[in-house]
């Protein structure tokens, strides 16, 4: 059952109240009570937005590009949702302040929603919360959703997989192509953007990326385009948007869009089950007590973490059988 405040919020959300949308994003972001019910209610409304991931090393100009992309979309009368994910900063407010300075025109536009999400000390669940925040924006009716993430690590990979198209942004001074390959950037990019093309070495980098991509085995027949941009002036951003649109058409026409959605749904269900199971297991005081005993055994060298884990699993199994 939904609490009355939550159902009122949902009603306001459905009537197009932007503040209600912001509050629902906060609800899922904080995994507050009612988040699962809210998301379940909103789910049928999702699936219309085009979700674009923008990733790359720190300072390459991602936010600058996001602002320019968002403005272009606004010129075409499309509404834009932006989720900036900052896994490194424990200060969510700081990230927002930074982007307020970098994206001034967007903060006053009613057709744009911006939210910064920080890890608050732990990475756990960040990718899931990002996806859920995007679901809320999608359900609200934002046409174009941009997810900005820094660098590449597991968390970015997870977040990238929630996007339809992932743009990897690099700059002439990013280093050579081999380094990028090592960083895992080549694998996740469906589009590559050489930003700060006003600087020397942009052509060289674009060529290096293209030859790297030539070596990359393509699983789905899409050849990632390399687009040169100057984020500060907006040069090339229209070409970037056009390339994104081509990728979207490609996904739809090749049926990859629905295949990916199917895959995401599968992942989502598994994650939700795992989350529930974890909660169920670790919230039991008797499991906690047994765990404490096993830790002591390992510490006194009468057991090993492996034997302890096996014993705990057995305990949990026996304990759940009694419960049934
Ligand atoms: N010369 C030049 N500077 C640029 C360009 N694009 C962005 N910048 C500058 O690069 C700096 C970093 O830009 P951001 O957009 O904040 O970069 P970011 O990738 O979002 O940074 P993080 O989110 O901190 O990782 C700013 O000072 C921008 O003005 C460009 O095309 N050329
Ligand atoms: Mg940024």
Structure commentary:
This protein is an alpha/beta fold. It has three domains: 1-45, no CATH class; 46-254, Rossmann fold (3-Layer(aba) Sandwich), CATH 3.40.50.300; 284-323. The chain contains 15 helices and seven strands. Strands 3-2-4-1-5-6-7 form a seven-stranded parallel β-sheet, sandwiched between helices. α11 (202-215) links the parallel β6 and β7 (226-228). α7 runs parallel beside α8 (154-160) and α14 packs antiparallel against α15. The longest helix is centred in the C-terminal third of the chain and has 27 residues, at 256-282. The protein is globular, with a radius of gyration of 22 Å. It starts with a helix and ends with a helix. The model is unreliable at 89-97 (pLDDT under 50). Bound molecules: guanosine-5'-triphosphate (GTP) and magnesium ion (MG). Residues 58-64, 102, 150, 195-196, 198-199, 230-232 line the site of guanosine-5'-triphosphate.
Q: Roughly how many Å is the radius of gyration?
A: 22 Å
Largest sheet: 7 strands, parallel
Strand content: 5-15%
Quote the distance from N terminus to C terminus. Answer: 25 Å
Q: Which blocks of ≥5 consecutive residues have pLDDT under 50?
A: 89-97
Number of domains: 3
- The amount of helix comes to 55-70%
Per DSSP, the total helix count is 15
CATH superfamily annotation of the largest domain? P-loop containing nucleotide triphosphate hydrolases
What's the β-strand tally?
A: 7
Averaged pLDDT: 85
Structural class: alpha/beta
Note the run of SSEs as H and E: HHHEHEHHEHEHEHHEHEHHHH
Q: Largest sheet, order of strands side by side?
A: 3-2-4-1-5-6-7
- What name does the CATH topology of the largest domain carry? Rossmann fold
Hetero groups in this structure are: guanosine-5'-triphosphate, magnesium ion
The CATH architecture category of the largest domain equals: 3-Layer(aba) Sandwich
Spatial shape: globular
CATH class of the largest domain: Alpha Beta
């Amino acid at each position: 059952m939904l609490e009355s405040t939550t159902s009122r919020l949902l009603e306001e959300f459905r009537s197009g109240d932007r503040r209600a949308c912001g509050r629902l994003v906060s609800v899922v972001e904080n995994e507050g009570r009612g988040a699962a019910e809210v998301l379940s209610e909103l789910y049928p409304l999702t699936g219309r937005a085009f979700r674009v991931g923008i990733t790359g090393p720190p300072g390459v100009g991602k936010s600058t590009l996001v602002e320019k992309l968002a403005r272009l979309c606004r010129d075409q009368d499309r509404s834009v949702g932006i989720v900036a994910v900052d896994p490194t900063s424990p200060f969510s407010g700081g990230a927002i302040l930074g982007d307020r300075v970098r994206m001034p025109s967007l903060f006053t536009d009613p057709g744009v929603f911006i939210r910064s999400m920080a890890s608050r000390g732990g990475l756990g669940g960040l990718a899931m919360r990002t996806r859920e925040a995007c679901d809320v924006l999608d359900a609200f009716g934002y046409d174009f959703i941009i997810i900005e993430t820094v660098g590449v690590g597991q968390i970015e990979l997870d977040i990238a997989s929630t996007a339809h198209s992932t743009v990897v942004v690099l700059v002439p001074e990013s280093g050579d192509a081999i380094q990028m390959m090592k960083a895992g950037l080549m694998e996740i990019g469906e589009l590559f953007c050489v930003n700060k093309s006003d600087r020397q070495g942009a052509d060289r980098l674009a060529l290096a990326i293209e030859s790297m991509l030539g070596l990359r085995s393509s699983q789905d027949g899409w050849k990632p385009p390399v687009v040169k941009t100057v984020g500060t002036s907006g040069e090339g951003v229209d070409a970037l948007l056009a390339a994104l649109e081509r990728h979207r058409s490609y996904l739809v026409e090749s049926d990859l869009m629905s295949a990916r959605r199917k895959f995401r749904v599968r992942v989502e269900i598994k994650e939700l089950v795992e989350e529930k199971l974890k909660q169920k297991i670790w919230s039991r005081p008797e499991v906690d007590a047994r765990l404490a005993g096993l830790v002591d055994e390992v510490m006194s060298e009468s057991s090993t973490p492996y034997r302890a884990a096996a014993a705990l699993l057995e305990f949990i199994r026996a304990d759940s059988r009694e419960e049934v």
